């Protein structure tokens, strides 16, 4: 595997994260793309562009996390990417890892950062967003379980 690609085993499957240029080349999984430049380049990709060093637009961050969790549950693997594979990717991937593993948002950030070898996500806003996303995804999962 390429050095900048993160691979995290969870109870629901494998979550990959990294720079789009590497993820699209080397990872065999459905891909959530957070960098507009790489949107619509291949089949089995889902585009939710998010501003660099940001969590805007929030609807795309939330949509990316929901789709990533759905794909992880259905396919057993999902990849998430942006230009550098740390800020936007770390935000979405950490929330998905938290829910998939049943761990806190802070522990999920630590897992992703250790695997990436960098402090990810990059900004305070993105780190806060991991916890917000985790809560929203947990509610979504709880509702789905209650309805089944």
UniProtKB/TrEMBL annotation:
PROSITE patterns: TYR_PHOSPHATASE_2. Residues 59-116 form the Tyrosine specific protein phosphatases domain. InterPro entries: Prot-tyrosine_phosphatase-like, Tyr_Pase_dom. Gene3D superfamilies: Protein tyrosine phosphatase superfamily (3.90.190.10). Signal peptide: none annotated. This is Tyrosine specific protein phosphatases domain-containing protein.
């Amino acid at each position: 595997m390429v050095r900048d690609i993160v691979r995290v085993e969870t109870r629901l499957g494998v979550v990959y994260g990294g720079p789009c240029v590497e993820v699209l080349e080397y990872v065999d999984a459905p891909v959530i793309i957070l960098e507009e430049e790489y949107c619509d380049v291949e089949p089995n990709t889902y585009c939710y562009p998010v501003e660099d060093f940001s969590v805007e637009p929030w609807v795309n961050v939330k949509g990316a996390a929901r789709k990533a969790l759905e794909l992880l549950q259905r396919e057993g693997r999902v990849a998430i990417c942006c230009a550098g594979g740390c800020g936007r990717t770390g935000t979405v991937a950490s929330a998905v890892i938290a829910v998939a593993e049943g761990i806190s948002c802070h522990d999920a950030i630590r897992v992703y950062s250790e695997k990436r070898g960098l402090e990810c996500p990059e900004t305070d806003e993105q780190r806060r967003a991991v916890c917000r996303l985790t809560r929203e995804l947990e509610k979504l999962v709880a509702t789905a379980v209650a309805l089944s």
